[in-house]
Every structure is written in structure tokens, then in C-alpha cells.
């Protein structure tokens, strides 16, 4: 009987030892998981800090790139305008030299601009010519300019009253 009790006690001790070994194994695996999670959290925090440190530099880079892009857009717009002017000039010259080339819309506008500029230049030349003649007349005829100016001023003062 004593042997039976001892055997039963031994079996119970073995079961308890197995259970404690399993619990120890579970605790160890839980601790390993906790350490792995803590390591992962630390790595994520380090990465966030790196990203936060890079963010201002990235903002500065983006603003510099925007300025460069705006400058390039202005340059491209100037180039387009220059090309348009060159093409208009080419068409005007082609239309004047080559009789087989018809007038396009751009050419007609350019020719109209040139004609308007010529009219303005002619009117300015007429005004200058008239001024020269008036000055010559004044100097040759010994006209008293002061007297004329005073008369004009006197007439204007009288007309205001």
C-alpha cells in the first residue's frame, strides 16, 4: 500500500513538474514576444525620429524645386513668345518676297501692325517738319516770341475771368 501511495505521489509530482515546465515555457515565450514587440516599437520610434528630422529639409527642397520650376516656366514662356515673333516676321518676309505664299491670319496681323507703325512714324515726321518750319519762320522773321507768349497768356487770363 505504501508503494501505491509513493507511486501515486510520484506520478502527481511528475504531472506537476510537467505542468510547471509548460508554464515556464509559456512564460518564456510571452517574454520573448514582449521583447520582440519592444524592439519593434523602438525601431519604429527611431524611424519616426529620422523621418521627422528629414521633413524640414524635404520642405526646403520642395520650395526650391517650385521656384526652379516657376523660373523654367517663365523661360519657356519667353521662348514661346520669341518663336511666335520670329514666325510672324518670317511670314511677313516670306509674303513680301515670295509671291506664291498667301497671307495667313498671323501674316495679316503682322502686316497690319507694320502699316500702323509706318503711319505713326509718318505722322511724327510731319509734326517734326512743321516744328522746323515754324522755328525757321520765327528766327527769320525776327518775331518777338515773348510778346506772342505774353499775348496768349493775357488772352487766356481774360477768358478765365
TrEMBL record:
Region (Disordered): 1-32
InterPro entries registered for this protein in UniProt: FlaC_arc
Pfam families found in the cross-reference section: FlaC_arch
Keyword line: Cell projection, Cilium, Flagellum
UniProt feature, compositional bias: Acidic residues: 13-32
Protein name: Flagella accessory C family protein
Species assigned in the record: Ferroglobus placidus (strain DSM 10642 / AEDII12DO)
